[in-house]
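quick one before i forget lol
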Amino acid sequence: MYIVQIASECAPVIKAGGLGDVVYGLSRELEIRGHCVEIILPMYDCMRYDQIWGLHEAYLNLSVPWYGGAIDCSVYCGWVHGRLCFFIRPNSGDNFFERGHYYGSGDDNMRFAFFSKAALEFLLRSNKRPDIIHCHDWQTGLVPVLLYEIYKYHGMGTQRVMYTIHNFKHQGFAGADVLAATGLGNAAYYFDYARLRDNFNPFLLNLMKGGIVYANFFNTVSPHHAWEAHHEKEGYGLGHTIHLYQYKFTGILNGLDYNIWNPEVDNFIPAPYGIDSYEEKANNKKALRERLLLRDADKPLVCYIGRLDDQKGVNLVHHAIYYTLARGGQFVLLGSATEKKINDWFKHEKAFLNDNPDVHIELGFNEELSHLIYAGADMIVVPSNFEPCGLTQMIGLKYGTVPVVRGVGGLVNTVFDRDYDQFHAPGDRNGFVFFNMDNNGLESALGRAIDLWYEKPEEFKKLALQGMEQDYSWNIPGDKYLEIYDLIRYKYPSLL
């Protein structure tokens, strides 16, 4: 099968979050299975060019229709850790992708509308006719719209679209200018509630809604989050649209790349280990303490790794630090804040706790250090307000670092409470879960984890090993995506 991924990120060359990891990891899994996969990306000025091998111009003078004229583009080609990627660079004064950042411009809707248009124009002009076009998040929500309203009439009538939503919170809103720019035109047609009109603002187009309506199939990144988006507030206003198209909607849990996140082969940790050599984990704990100047004592070490924002439950992350210290434990935090007030808050905490030998706060992100923290910590807290999938808890499981999570989204699909889970046998349980978004909820789970570490160390080890035994690789998600690809190619080849 010939599959083209169209996305705004692909790790490690372009990564702002989990989207980049998924685009790379799924593409790699599909290629391992013998399928041909290519990835189309924007050519940002700030991406990691050192992660691209053999970058060269592959298509000159790609003329992309835009408003009443056209924008000339160059398409570059290179290999990103074995994945064949095409990078679209507009030669325009708009400088769509020369902003020094991936997201955050006031015209993001136009930037990515152009990218969606340019990606399809590139496929058309280069005579690439993939079986499946797989696009991601609001940034490429216009791809299926453009394909089925314009490009299918120009020789692309057999292409089928899979649309993956990684975060419903960011949906991409636009006005009629996007229709004029991309050549869709006919504002009255697209401002119809049944097409792109936002469910709550009749004067806005919703690009994510367009992707849902026009794609042959769409999904989000865990089964439980699919239910939340459909029935609860996590759909951020798209619940009714999901309900209308539920026959082509599902949740597929993201996978984890065990070539990168695997303590048996991890080059960033001093003492590799696995299920049969779990005792070596203690040497990584010692190395982590030495690196961060923590005291070497018989204490549980709890960590948090990730963004510091409301989605991630930043208030509970803060409470977890002081609760762990009150219980005689140690805490390591590695994370970057998305808002100034949160960053200032944790800078204050860092200064206040600077001389405490049982806590270390590292603001920012350090890939090498994150590996050592996963390997050295006993527990990892993931107290998210909402979590479409989550990778940190999966990494924690692989590293024998017991997760303590809130029961939302993909966390429910991957972490099963040692004491109270009613759906998994005791031998399949792997962590601790709480549900209330408050301090008491966090303490109910983290307290049980710390108690088990102190009072029943062999039981704690057994729980950690059970987590290490579970498979959250791309193997199962790869099967599920291929099933859907075949479904939309053969069972109902065209929905529009």
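fyi The chain is about 35% helix and 20% strand.
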